[in-house]
Amino acid sequence: MTGDSRLSTLLYRLGRSAFRRRKTVAALWLALLVLMGVAAATLAEETTDSFDVPGTESVDALAMLQERFPEAANDGATARVVFAVDEGEALTDPEHQATLAATLQELAQVRDVVAVTDPFEAQTVAPDLRIAYAEVAFNNSFPAANEELTEAVEPARDAGMTVELAGEALMEEFENHAAELIGLGVAAIVLVITFGSFVAAGLPLLNAIIGIGITIAALTAATRFFDLSSSSPTLALMLGLALAIDYSLFIVSRYRHERRVLADSGDQDPGPEAMGRALGTAGSAVVFAGLTVMIALLGLSVVGLDMLTEMGLAAAFAVAMAVLIALTMLPALCGMVGRRITGGQVPGLRARDPEAQEADGNPSLGTRYVKFITRRPLPVLLLVGVGMVALAIPAADLRLGLPDDGQMGEDTTQRQAYDLIAEGFGAGANGPLMVVVDTLGSPDPEPAAQRVFQTVSELDNVVFAQPPVFNQAGDTALVTVIPQTGPSSEATEELVEAIRGGTTAIEQEAGVAVAVTGQTAIIIDFNEQMGQALLPYLSVVVGLSLLLMLLVFRSILVPIKAALGFLLTMGATFGAVVAVFQWGWLTDLLPVTQSDLVVSFLPIILIGVVFGLAMDYQVFMVTRMREEYVHGAAPKAAVVTGFQHGSRVVAAAAIIMISVFAGFTLSGMDFILQIALALAIAIALDAFVVRMTLVPALLALLGRAAWWLPRWLDKILPNVDIEGEKLRHELSEREAEPVGTR
Fold it and tell me: Is the pTM of the predicted complex or chain greater than 0.90?
């Protein structure tokens, strides 16, 4: 071999080396797994969750309140305990008063509780005296106090009083349940069917389990040094598990093919050479596919939201681990099983080379499918394109937000608490607004604050506004506003904008600064930030990824086609998400509940993850087609042959990934459910409709033009040799050498 530094050559050498030094490589990975496990057990700390967007009005105002008016701005979690009695009764009845007082005392004893309000003192008793609520403040931003709060109110329920709970303190930290590993079971079945061998099927699974174990342990240990949202390990687990299996699947499939070719040529020990060639070709595709996914995930940092940045970094780390372990540990595992990689055949299943099947006159289903597409590319393009556009139509009704307790299932205590408060005080009481008046620069603070109060009181959609309350220093006033509509209502969003716009004149004339904050305003600003960040994020991710595709395929039209196919996937996916979550389609068959909103950060995450995964399938499918074209095949024949080799493993990879994502719909957390289901839908559409139908049809239609690249651009672009063309030339020079000296 020469000193060439091309990626395929480097990976060829890595594959041979890892195969031959399998015990050392495996020992290093297992040692890392143990080390990370110990680190996770000794360094793990609590995760943190925040939807704050630094620099927004609501977050800055809340920070000022915490500094100047701490008694009005608890920075810990809160819970709302709602009490209700039957018709004809009142909470002022002696027995109910005694029960309520005893319950408040029990609530004050709950761990991390710093204050509990009395409904009668705080005037949070409904006019008919049937419904009241108490606010419970914690000194911890994530106490997870469900069980203790439930125990504290149980005596009141036993006494015949209705007591329901709501608030941030009721949010349970996400835990991965056994149901989420259903994807592993499905993956095992798909791998067995794909390879027709228990041994070959087991390698990707074992490799993925080791890789994801290291990843999750490392992220758990990292909580000692970095803030990490509770959803970050979940996204990392979903992607890391799915991609580790998929990447291993592609490499094992290519390794078995190369091993069979070498064995047929008389090589008595084809293992090291076959692995070198597998990594030099399929391994190159794995590297570039992984880079594309990582670019998309790291791009989440452009949004400027800590939670999304943490999720992107954690998931990108998981992808990097999936690539590394597929390129090193997997060759070592293949070396350990040796000839058994083709053994352990399952009765009735036989994985055959597609070219051999074609030569025997028994073409596979994939071969017949791609030949049908390439014979009628234009009708296929029109039919499938129209279908995807039609599926995207519901996306016009997409409404983003962060679902509140009113969006939860009717049988949950949070939803019942929300409904009781709406019944007793109006829906707006579930999301009060805090209008902060900074009077530090005003010569007449009290009159200025009163003007703000009067202006806000007269706005539409305001049910109640509390007169201004000043802090001890007298430089900050707080006006609490109760809207008529609920926290996730569009009318409430309009009210926030009306308050901000309606107090501008007072700010200028009286020398005060007015800001709207509170949980509802913070969420509204969060949603707005998500919308503003969407276009820059899409530009960064698509721009960088198109450059990467340009390097991989050395073509102008193929990267553009890949991006257009992605846009079709996203439109159809958003249409399906709206139909399921907002319109309620298929809610009887799926573990979902109808909601008026789609989680506001879903588009950002979905675009990033799906673009990366879509390019994965683009790389694995089209790379093999280009490889055939580069090696002299006619354009249409290259599409057919590339599809023959790639379709089986791409279909298997997509089914595995869909299964892994679908398993997370059983998590019980609404936003994880929405993300998981949206990802499963997107992968199904992109893999089977776009990459396996539209792509071969379009390539067949374009012919040689699909692979056109201007000469001046061809000269300046580095040749990454992802198809292994340089590697093939180098290997051909050694064909005359005796087999045993290779």
Answer: no
